[in-house]
Each structure stands twice: as structure tokens, then as C-alpha cells.
Automatic annotation (TrEMBL):
It catalyses: sn-glycerol 3-phosphate + NAD(+) = dihydroxyacetone phosphate + NADH + H(+). Its main location: cytoplasm. Its EC number is 1.1.1.8. Belongs to the NAD-dependent glycerol-3-phosphate dehydrogenase family. GO terms for biological process: carbohydrate metabolic process; glycerol-3-phosphate catabolic process. This is Glycerol-3-phosphate dehydrogenase [NAD(+)]. It comes from Fraxinus pennsylvanica. One of its GO terms (cellular component) is cytosol.
């Protein structure tokens, strides 16, 4: 791949300000020692994918550790060539001029003039170009610190110690298959932290899901003990603006405790957890049900009652599905519940559901929306429905006392599939599903799930070790 490195200023910024937290260098030194780093050998961290959360994650690391240039290198890769349209360039110019710290920074770096020219229509800006100055195309209103941007994938990853997967789940497999070509000669395997939320379904040899960490494992043959998932109640722009937040890093015990410590900041608390499956699957499921939440909000004029009814039913379906996948899944509480709540409240998938219900977006526009990125819930609806509709997974219906596909016990998932995928129903179908007088008490579905009668270990398939 042809590409280049665009080098940002070495000055450490925290949304325009220098950061100096006690203990930061000690945390970095401790992690370097774990990897056997010696003086002069940088810890190399690279983000792959520059959506909102991927860019913010890289910026958080840059703010914390970028000042220690002899000890760590933090870069982010994104594809070159994505142009910024005129309307976005005009809005970006307004954002720049509304923030004195950002304006001064660009003037000091001799980078302001290109934004003036783009505002006037005399120049085309590119996404990788503005990211170097701290502007993520999917999150223009929240300026980040300047970032070191790499547009050549091989150059970005070939010697990376830590790789942050900030790609949508729908792109994870393809990109990591390419990355695997550059790691064939590696002696030591990198650590990979996946931020992706979503799944794919495969039906042979038996129906099973493939999560982003499994995609990475299969594509690269990096062992699962080196691949972790990080998720939590995180709205990217709010985290970068220092809203207090928390997250969990999940996976094998080899790295997760040390990584939680490295990633933890005063406003961003990271805990560690061993239940990779439940957290990663819930990360995909919440995007599914967030689309429906947005539809309900738009169709009922933000009715608190309707939204609470929807919340009760969708969380019961989520609990039911995770009990199919794990014998003792993490309870839908704490960060897992909070992640679901915030995604239903304000995530891009909920926004998408609202826009579809209001008629301001069309399904024909696809699931990649300008200024928002990929709406991952759409593909996840198809994957979960396809998987859970297989007769080989039949479970006993508690009332009909006959075998049915698991999806028959998930009426909201069925309805979203008919709205988004087959388009058999309009968006008002989601309200009809909630108002079905035959709809069971959500508690009944949870009790069925917790009886262990529905656990299907084959749904997780197998991963390469």
C-alpha cells in the first residue's frame, strides 16, 4: 500500500492544554518492563481505524503518554483519500473559530490557512489530513489533540507492540487479514485491544457467531490470550471532554490487569474482567436494540413510558440471548447495563433509528452515514436473526410446549429484522410489537434463560489457538 506518515507536533496537548498527572510515567515504565523494553526502545502503540471512538482512544493515550517521546510512540492509521465535503469544511471552520485554544494552535502550526481556503471552496481537505490536526471526520464538533497519522498499513503495524482495533466489526476481518501478511516474520506476538462492537453469523458446519476478537484471532493467528475487548458506557466526544466514565477490559489474565492500569485515567476508570464472551456479545446486541429505541423515541414523541416498556423487553431479550451463548454470563448490571443504557439513550445507532422513523434518512442510504460512520447495529440485526432462526437450535416454547427457533422468543429482534432487512414492515411495527397483548412478561423470558435449559455452547464455534 502506498502511504505516508504525517507527523504531528511533539507538544503534549490535552484538548489544548498540557497534561501532567502524577504517576503517569511510572505506569508507563511498569508496562514497558513487562514487555522487556530497554532504554531507547519505544513502546509502539498504533490505532487501526479512525472513527470517533478509535480516534478518541488514540488521543487519550497521546494526551497521557505522548510527552514521553523516548519511551512511547503513539500513532493512528486510517485509509487515505477520503475527501471532506464543502458543508463539513464550512462547519469545521466554525468549530475552529469558536475555540480560541484550537485557533491559536493551528495558527502556531501554520495550519489555519488551509481551513480558510476549504471554507471558501478553494481547497479540498482530506480526512487523514485533518486528523493530523486533531479533527475526526465523524466527530467534527470535538477537537482532539494533534495525532501522528499513518496512511500505510504495513508501516503502521509491522512492529507495533499494542494494536487498538478501532474498525467497525464489518471491516475488522478484511483489514486484519491484510495485517497478517506483515506479521509472518514476527517472533513475538503483539497485544490487540478491540473496541469493535458487532458479530457475524456462520451457519456451517454448525450455526455459530464470530465476534471481532475471534475474527482477529482467525485472521492473524495471534493467540486469544493476547486479544482483549474494551467496552463500557462510552460516548466518545463526552469522554474526551473529560466527562467521568468507566469501562471494562476483558480477556485472559495474561495482560488485562496490567492494561487496565495503563489505560486508567482520573476521568476514565478501566476495570478488568475475564468474561470476554458476554461483554463482546452485549456490545453487539446493544447496537441492535438501540436502533429500536431510537424508533420508539421518535414515534412516541420521547414518551418516557414507551421507552421504559421498550427497555424492559429489549434487556430481557439481551439476557436470553447471552444465556444461549454462555453458561454463566456476566449479569446485565454495572458497566454492562450502563453501556446498554447510554447506547439506547444517545449512541449513533439510536440516532439512526430516530432518523429512519422520522423519515430524515432512508434505508436505501445504507448503513454508512456521513458524519456518523458505520451504523453497526444494522448488520448485527441480520446476523443475530439469521443465527437464532436456525431450527437446529430449537428450544422448547414455555407456553406452546413445542420446539421453536430461539428467535421466536425475541419479538423485538424479529420486528427489527422485518423493518431493517426484509423491509416487510414500516417503523411503526416496533410499537405494534410492544403493544401485542400476547407479549410475555419480560421476567418470564429472563427466568427461562437462567434455567440453563437453553445454553448452546456450539454457538460460539471455535477459535484458532
Amino acid at each position: 500500500m502506498v502511504g505516508s506518515i504525517e507527523v504531528a507536533s511533539s507538544e503534549p496537548y490535552l484538548n489544548g492544554a498540557i497534561q501532567n498527572h502524577n504517576g503517569t510515567e511510572e505506569k508507563l515504565d511498569e508496562f514497558r518492563r513487562l514487555l522487556g523494553k530497554v532504554d531507547g526502545d519505544q513502546l509502539k502503540i498504533v490505532g487501526v481505524g479512525a472513527g470517533a471512538w478509535g480516534s478518541v482512544f488514540a488521543a487519550l493515550l497521546q494526551d497521557s503518554y505522548g510527552q514521553f517521546r523516548d519511551k512511547v510512540q503513539i500513532r493512528i492509521w486510517r485509509r487515505p483519500g477520503r475527501s471532506v465535503d464543502r458543508a463539513t469544511a464550512e462547519h469545521l471552520f466554525e468549530v475552529i473559530n469558536s475555540r480560541e485554544d484550537v485557533l491559536r494552535r493551528l495558527i502556531r502550526r501554520c495550519a489555519y490557512l488551509k481551513y480558510v481556503e476549504a471554507r471558501l471552496g478553494d481547497r479540498t481537505l482530506y480526512a487523514d489530513e485533518i486528523l493530523k490536526d486533531g479533527f475526526c471526520l465523524n466527530m467534527i464538533d470535538t477537537p482532539l489533540c494533534p495525532l501522528k497519522v499513518v496512511t500505510n498499513l504495513q508501516e503502521a503495524v509491522w512492529d507495533a507492540d499494542i494494536v487498538i482495533n478501532g474498525l467497525p466489526s464489518t471491516e475488522t476481518r478484511e483489514v486484519f487479514e491484510e495485517i497478517s501478511k506483515y506479521w509472518k516474520e514476527r517472533i513475538t506476538m503483539p497485544i490487540i485491544i478491540s473496541l469493535a462492537k458487532g458479530i457475524e453469523a456462520e451457519l456451517v458446519p454448525v450455526p455459530h457467531i464470530i465476534t471481532p476478537t475471534q475474527m482477529i484471532n482467525r485472521a492473524t493467528r495471534v493467540p486469544m490470550e493476547n486479544i482483549l475487548y474494551l467496552g463500557g458506557p462510552n460516548i466518545a466526544s463526552e469522554i474526551y471532554d473529560k466527562e467521568y466514565a468507566n469501562a471494562r477490559i476483558c480477556g485472559a489474565g495474561k495482560w488485562r490487569i496490567q492494561l487496565a492500569k495503563l489505560l486508567r485515567q482520573p476521568h476514565f476508570i478501566v476495570w478488568d474482567n475475564s468474561d470476554l464472551v458476554t461483554h463482546e456479545v452485549m456490545g453487539g446486541l446493544k447496537n441492535v436494540y438501540a436502533i429500536g429505541a431510537g424508533m420508539v423515541a421518535a414515534l412516541t414523541n420521547e414518551s418516557a413510558t414507551s421507552k421504559s416498556v421498550y427497555f424492559a423487553h429489549c434487556t430481557s431479550e439481551m439476557i436470553f440471548i447471552t444465556h444461549l451463548l454462555a453458561e454463566e454470563p456476566e449479569k446485565l448490571a454495572g458497566p454492562l447495563l450502563a453501556d446498554t443504557y447510554v447506547t439506547l439513550l444517545k449512541g449513533r445507532n439510536a440516532w439512526y433509528g430516530q432518523m429512519i422513523a422520522k423519515g430524515e434518512l432512508s434505508l436505501d442510504m445504507g448503513d454508512s452515514i456521513s458524519g456518523k460512520g458505520t451504523i453497526q447495529g444494522v448488520s448485527a440485526v441480520g446476523a443475530f436473526y439469521e443465527l437464532l432462526s436456525q431450527s437446529s437450535l430449537n428450544v422448547l416454547h414455555p407456553e406452546a410446549n413445542k420446539p421453536v427457533a430461539p428467535v421466536e422468543l425475541c419479538p423485538i429482534l424479529k420486528t427489527l429484522y422485518k423493518i431493517l432487512i426484509t423491509r416487510e414492515q414500516g417503523t411503526r411495527g416496533i410499537l405494534q410489537a410492544l403493544r401485542d397483548e400476547n407479549l410475555n412478561d419480560p421476567r418470564d423470558r429472563i427466568e427461562i434463560a437462567q434455567s440453563h435449559a437453553f445454553y448452546r455452547p456450539s454457538l460460539l464455534g471455535g477459535s484458532l489457538e
